[in-house]
Amino acid sequence: MLKFHNVSFEYPNQPVFDNLNVGIENGEFIFLIGKSGTGKTTLLQMVYMNLLPQSGYVEVDGYNSKSIKKSELPYLRRKVGVVFQDFKLLDDRTVYDNLAFVLKITGNVRSQIKRKIVHALTDVGLVHKQHNMPQELSGGEQQRVAIARAIINDPMLILADEPTGNLDPETSMEIFNILKRINLRGTTVIFATHNYDLVRKHEAKIIKLNDGKAVRVILKNKGQSTSEPA
Ligand SMILES: Nc1ncnc2c1ncn2[C@@H]1O[C@H](COP(=O)(O)OP(=O)(O)OP(=O)(O)O)[C@@H](O)[C@H]1O
Ligand SMILES: [Mg+2]
User: Fold this and answer.
1) Of 29, 122, 144, 173, which sees the most CB atoms within 10 A?
2) Please, what are the domains in the chain?
3) For residue range 19-59, what is the model confidence (pLDDT) as tens digits?
4) Which residues line ligand 1 (CB under 6 A)?
5) Which residue among 4, 14, 35, 194 is best mutated to probe the pocket of ligand 1, counting the most ligand atoms within 8 A of its Cβ?
6) Looking at 111-120, 197-206, 207-216, which range is the least confident one?
7) What DSSP character marks residue 147?
8) First-to-final CA distance of the chain
9) Cα(130) to centroid of ligand 2, in Å?
């Protein structure tokens, strides 16, 4: 469903990936880990083809970075929901209007808009806050709205870039649980994080970036781990 094949990528004067190979199957929940600067955010941006490899290719649900046309990018991006550490809600409009904004630019007709918003907000337990402004919500609530926004067009894949980075441990667990529940309904989730506590406590697959490459890490008892190709 998602494949990085011999991907090399560098920013000007900053190599990031060197023949990176990663494969992710439909329906997986993946923790993406690695020290700061190893390329987690860069990798996620390559999944929605905001960045393209200098060599090798990225394949997402049949779209290939080598052959995708600019006019096809909106179709790919509709299949991918993104959640950021700092929520990135529009602070000049209500929760409802934040979600309506996304639905309008992705071509939903008026009759679908209200139904989809209520559905997504119900999923994250925030229907009662739909008329509030983002700054009237706690950080955890704002992140739940951001998740509602990410799932509103029923994507096949969610990319979460340190979604719990600004949240306390209990709220982080809530956010993880919401994403896990969405995953159990069939949506693939890639969860980039520094929160090793969360990673250790859960059965999920781990992809670790290091030196421009990736490995899958398998956690064992007593903190031991083994790795295999990603
Ligand atoms: N726009 C850019 N231009 C040049 N270099 C960049 C740019 N964005 C990131 N980098 C560099 O590329 C490398 C990978 O960055 P990236 O943000 O993907 O790492 P990360 O794993 O997400 O780090 P963190 O855990 O701190 O979020 C870093 O060395 C970073 O300094
Ligand atoms: Mg990052």
Assistant:
1) 144
2) 1-79+157-230 (3.40.50.300), 89-154 (no CATH)
3) 999 999 999 999 999 999 999 999 999 999 999 999 999 99
4) 11, 14, 16, 34, 36-42
5) 14
6) 197-206
7) H
8) 14
9) 30
Q: How far is CA 47 from the centre of its chain?
A: 10
Residue 153 to residue 156: CA distance in whole angstroms: 9
Q: Specify the ligand 1 atom closest to the Cα of 34.
A: 21
Strand partners, 84: 161
Query: Positive or negative, the Cα torsion across 56, 58, 61, 64?
Result: negative
Task: Return d(Cα 28, Cα 43) in angstroms, integer.
Answer: 17
Q: pLDDT tens digits for 151-205?
A: 999 999 999 999 999 999 999 999 999 999 999 999 999 999 999 889 988 888 9
Centre of ligand 2 from the C-alpha of residue 118, in Å:
31
Angle between the N-to-C axes of helices 110-123 and 95-105, in degrees from 0 to 180, rounded to the nearest 10: 130
DSSP E strands in 109-169: the ranges are: 157-161
Q: Residue 19: how many CB atoms within 10 A of its CB?
A: 13
Ligand 1 centre to CA of 95 (Å) is 31
The rounded distance, in Å, linking the Cα atoms of 177 and 150 is 15
DSSP secondary structure code for residue 162 in this structure: S
> Residue with the nearest Cα to atom 26 of ligand 1?
36
Is pLDDT of 222 > 70? no
